[in-house]
Amino acid sequence: MKAVILRDLGGPEQYRIGDVDIPSLGEDEVLVRIRAAAFNRRDIFIRKGEYPGIRLPAIPGADGAGEIAAVGKGVKDLAIGDKVVINPALNWGNDERIYTKDFSIVGVPTNGTFAEYINVPRENVFPKPEHLSWEEAAALPLGGLTAYRALLTKGKVKKGEAVLIPGIGGGVATFLLQMAVALGTNVFVTSSSEEKIQKAISLGASGGVNYKEPNWEKQLRKWMPEGADLCIDSVGGDNFVKLLNIAKHGSRIVTFGATACPVPQLVMPKIFLKQIDVIGTTMGSPAEFQSMLSFYDKHKIKPVIDSVFSIEEIREAQLRIEKGVNFGKVVVIMPWHEL
Amino acid sequence: MKAVILRDLGGPEQYRIGDVDIPSLGEDEVLVRIRAAAFNRRDIFIRKGEYPGIRLPAIPGADGAGEIAAVGKGVKDLAIGDKVVINPALNWGNDERIYTKDFSIVGVPTNGTFAEYINVPRENVFPKPEHLSWEEAAALPLGGLTAYRALLTKGKVKKGEAVLIPGIGGGVATFLLQMAVALGTNVFVTSSSEEKIQKAISLGASGGVNYKEPNWEKQLRKWMPEGADLCIDSVGGDNFVKLLNIAKHGSRIVTFGATACPVPQLVMPKIFLKQIDVIGTTMGSPAEFQSMLSFYDKHKIKPVIDSVFSIEEIREAQLRIEKGVNFGKVVVIMPWHEL
Fold this sequence. Notes:
Two copies of one chain form a homodimer.
Chain A: E1 2-6, E2 15-19, E3 29-38, H1 41-48, E4 63-71, E5 83-86, E6 89-90, E7 104-105, E8 117-121, E9 125-127, H2 134-139, H3 141-154, E10 162-165, H4 171-182, E11 186-191, H5 194-202, E12 207-210, H6 216-223, E13 228-233, H7 237-246, E14 247-255, H8 268-273, E15 277-280, H9 286-298, E16 305-310, H10 314-322, E17 329-333
Parallel strand pairs in A: 10-11, 10-13, 11-12, 13-14, 14-15, 16-17
Antiparallel strand pairs in A: 1-2, 3-4, 3-8, 3-17, 4-5, 5-9, 6-7
Protein name (chains A, B): Zinc-binding dehydrogenase
Pfam families (chains A, B): ADH_N (PF08240), ADH_zinc_N (PF00107)
InterPro entries (chains A, B): ADH-like_C, ADH-like_N, ER, GroES-like_sf, NAD(P)-bd_dom_sf, Zinc_ADH-like
C-alpha cells in the first residue's frame, strides 16, 4: 500500500511517499481504508524529533476517517464498508482520570493515518457522524477529544460563563471555541492576527484581542470586569502569568499544551490567594470520545477546516501548521499517487 | 485594656505592650476576653511589611480563644462567660469557592487577638471544643481552617491514599498531618530536621525524608512507587518542580503558600501530560470552620503545641516561627503584665 513514510528526523522533505505492506490484522482489530487524514502539531514535533518514543521509519498521522476494509476474527459488529472515524487514543483503559501505562497515540510508535490502510483496535473506531464530510470527520478526532475533555470534563464549563481561549487558530482552540459557543458561554480569544480574531468572532466569539498590542489585558478586563471563569491554555510561557491576572478569583485554568514553555516565573501566591485551579489535561477517554462525537452530532457542528491538500502536497500542508498560519484543521485527502 | 501594639514595621522589638481603649461594640458583634492566642507565619510577614493592607499602629494576631465579655444589641444567642474560639476569616460571604471583596483576616486591618479584648462579628465565634484547653483551642483556628479546606474540600482526600506534606513542622502542616492520619491515609513528610521527621512519625506519618540529603525523592518513590495521590504544599520554589515529579498521574497538588516563592521554571508539560490538578486555596468558609471544629471534636484530636509563652515573652515566641524551629503552634497566654 501507499503511505507517507518518515525515514529520518528533520524538515518537511523527510516526508516521502512509499510502498509498504498492508498491516496484518490482530484478532480484535479492524483495517480502515483511509479517506481523509489531518495534521496535528504533534506530527511536527515528531518529525523534528521533539517527542518521546519515536521509532523510525514511521507512518505519521493521528487523525483519520475511512471505511472498514477488513475485520479481525474477534470482531462481529462491524462490516466491510462501514464508515468510521478513528479514536487516536490507544489503550486508555478504564480510569476516566488517567490512561494506562500502555497508552499511546496513533502515529507513534504504531503506524499512523497518512496511509492507504491502518489497523487499529476495534474499540478505537466509531461510526462517522452523518452530517460530516470525510474531510470534516478526519479533522475531528484528536483535537475534538482534547477540547471536549478540557472544556467539559476538566473545565466543567457552565452556560453564561466567561471563557478565555488564548492563541485562537490551532485545531484544539477552534474546537474549544465551537463547543463553548454552543454551550452558551461568552468566549474571548487572543491572537497575533486580526484575521484570526475576525474569524473567531464570525464563529461566535464575543471578542478578541491582539496580544501584540499593548494593553491587551486591559481590553479583556473591560469585557470581563471580574475576570475569566475559565481559561483554556496551550501557550504557557509568559502568557501563563498573564492568565493568572485575568483569571477570576475561584476560577479554573485548564492547560493542555505549552508552545511557549517553560513558564519563566510562576507566581504561586496568585494561584493560592485567588484560589485558582490549574488543571492539566491531555487527550481523553473512550467515553469522552463518544460524548464528543455525540456533541458534534447533536449541535450539528462542523469542524473548522483551514485547508485541504492532496496527499502529494503533504509537505506544503504541514507548513501551514508549522508556520502557525492555519485557522482550523489542515486536512489531507486520498487517493494515492506518487509524490 | 492591655494589648500588643505594632507601631512600626521591623524586627521583633516592634512588638510593644501598651494600653488602648476597649473596642466599642457593633450591634452584631461580640467582645471576647482573650485567654490564649497563637502565632501564624502571617504575623511575621505583617511585622516585616510583607503583607497587603497593613495600617499602623495595629494589634496583631489572628488566632484566639476566650470568653464572651459583652454582646451587641442584635446578639441574642450568646451570654457573658460563654467559651468561644474565633474564626479569623471575616466576611467570607456565601460562596464556598471564594470570599467576598470585603474579606479580611483578623489582625490586619482590624484589631487582632494579642490583646485583652477583641470585638468580632457574632458569626465569627464558635463554641470552644470541650476536649481542648485554652491553649489548644487558640492554636486551632487559622491553621486548622486552612488545612481542612486544603485537605478535604480542595484535596478531596480519600482513605488509603498516599499524601505528601512537604516541610512538616509549621502549624498548617501539622494540622494536615493529624487530619490525614485520622482519615486513614498514608502520610509522608519532608523536613530538613531529623527531629521533626521523628515527631511526624510519632503522630502517625508513615515516613519522612530529609530534603537536605541527596536522593530524597528516590526514597519517597520507594514508599510511593506510583507517586503521591495528593501533595499539599506551602513551600513552592524549586521544591514545586520536584513535587510534579513525585505526583502520580492524575493526582492533585494543593498549594496554600510559597515560602520559597517564586517557582523558577514550572514545566507545564508535567502538569498536562501527567494530568495533574494544581489547586490553589487560602483560608476557608464559615461552613468549613464549623466542619473543622467538628472533625477535631469527633476524632478527639488535640492541636500540636510547639511551645507556650506568656504574653510578656511575645518577642521570643515569634522567633520560633521566624527561625522555623517550631513543630506545631506557638501559643501565647494571658493574663496581662507590663513588658
